[in-house]
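Today's session is about reading a structure prediction critically. Students often jump straight to the picture, but the first step is always the sequence itself: look for stretches that repeat, for charged clusters, for runs of hydrophobic residues. Only then move on to the predicted structure, which in these notes is written as discrete structure tokens rather than atom positions. Here is the chain we will use throughout the hour.
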Amino acid sequence: MSFAELRNYERELYRFRLRLAVAGFAVLIAFGLLAARFIFLQVVQHDVYASKAEDNRISIVPIPPNRGLIVDRNGIVIARNYSGYTLDIFPRRVKSVERTINELSELIEITPRDRARFKKVMVETRNPESLPIRTRLSDEEVARFAVNRFRYEGVEIKARLFRQYPYGDVASHAIGYMGRVNKDDQVRLEEEGVDANYRGTDFIGRTGVEASYQAELHGTTGFEQVEIDAAGRGIRTLSRSASQSGNNVALTLDIRLQQVAENAFGERRGALVAIEPGTGGVLAFVSKPGFDPNLFVDGIDPQTWAELNTNPDLPLNNRAIAGVYPPGSTFKPFMAMAALETGKRTFRSTINDPGYFFFGDRRFRDSKPGGHGVVDLYKSIVVSSDTYYYQLANDMGIDAIAGFMKNFGFGARTGIDVQGEALGILPSPEWKQARFKNPAQQKWFPGETISIGIGQGYNAYTPIQLAQAMATLAAGGAMYKPHLVAHVDNPRTGDQRYAEPELVHQAPFKPEHVEFVKRAMAGVNKEGTGARAFAGAQYTSGGKTGTAQVIAIKQNEKYDESKVAERHRDHSLFVAFAPLESPKIALAVIVENGGFGARAAAPIARTVLDYFLLGKLPKGMQLPTPEDEVKDDREAD
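Below is the predicted structure for this chain, in token form.
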């Protein structure tokens, strides 16, 4: 071996050793970094990662509270809860929701309606933890899934409480219905700072008492710590904080009276509101047609929702507080009070009623051709003389009429404790100026005042406003705020919070004026337009019929009901109170397109008063009883 070859060998060995040292040093540094990281994670950050590991092992599961019951004034349950099983999909734990549903359908029946409802809820709910693909599972279906549970990751059976309305569509607009919590609800609950209390809550009150008393009915959500496995399934419960049931709500409604009133309407459209004059408590609250709130219990499917919304009879429209109608001749007793209180008429003031009233070159016709002859104030109410009130309205003027009618709450919301109340229209020059944008339409013309006197023209009020006005007159001018809830009961403590009668306004009416108008209204039911409907009544009541035009007819054209389309025919109205001596009930009835008030609305009022005062049912009627069993509507799909 030459010297040069030996020298190259030493150089290569040196380089190898250097590289080996560098590599060893790098390895030491790497292990040092790993050791440092290990110490940082295991020692310095021990508490942080121990907490995260515990979070992965433990799940905080909300326990929704039992929703409070709704009962009527006699303690009859009209909204309650029942338990059932749902098949829930956890969207974040499945790879494909659609494939999961298809696989589940091989084991448990899933209808197109179930799929449509699930998709609708998916769209409406923000970051859902789980959603039901099937509700109200049978015991057989629950057992079948339990055996095959290992095959379906991200699918579980859940026990839930469902709302039930044992009387179906009876009082549906008063009670309201439940709806699934959607994105807008979640945002609102967060803004109100109560979203934590709604964790695990699937449904919330949408309308009626269910909505307006949502906070009372809901209760307090509980929580439990559950140890879970790698698949997210619960192994055991570590701790539990029990939920607190919602409060029970007792209504002023009499569900039996409500049934009688709704039955009296039959298939006709309309509304009825009955009020206690001395408290404002609502005894009956009818809007026909109604709807079955049980349809919404487990989330209404798109098809049923569309059918309800496209129904020409508008079953979801709460006519009792949102329907706005001309009052027709039911306005006349209030005009009579205005005449007496303002001094425009006395008890003995008379006119000659030829069957028409001329204002300028326009002829306003009376409902009776030829008129009623000599008419005083009493007779004007009993026979419902239009001519008398045409002249009275002209003599009073629109400002005096509008100012006085505020004493009865016309044109103002009553403030009833359910949402969606319409304002109504109490006509005045100020109202017209605000209503129309065109200056030519804003001016009030004297001729427009004439029709106001008989409850036509721009006059338009809700049934609840008419009932409140009637109750105010029956109570001598004392106007109470209508309310549906009598008291709220705490089932844990037994405490009851009563809704005290709220006097909104005390009109300074002279007692003799009130008694005169009430006697004249009693005359309506004894000898006037309501006599036929109240023949043989075992009590004395006051009433007033009314017929309100739906479409205008030409000045010289005679109205012929048979030649008018059904939905363009006149509305039938009736207001009443009883008994005369000490009124305990005041009501307003409207039958849409029912024609003369004496023909359609008055008999309904008689039926309601007969039952309320005498416990008398119409011949052949039996009060239906609530269905104790929850029916599955899957066969109808």
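Discussion point for the tutorial: The first strand starts at residue 58 and ends at 63.
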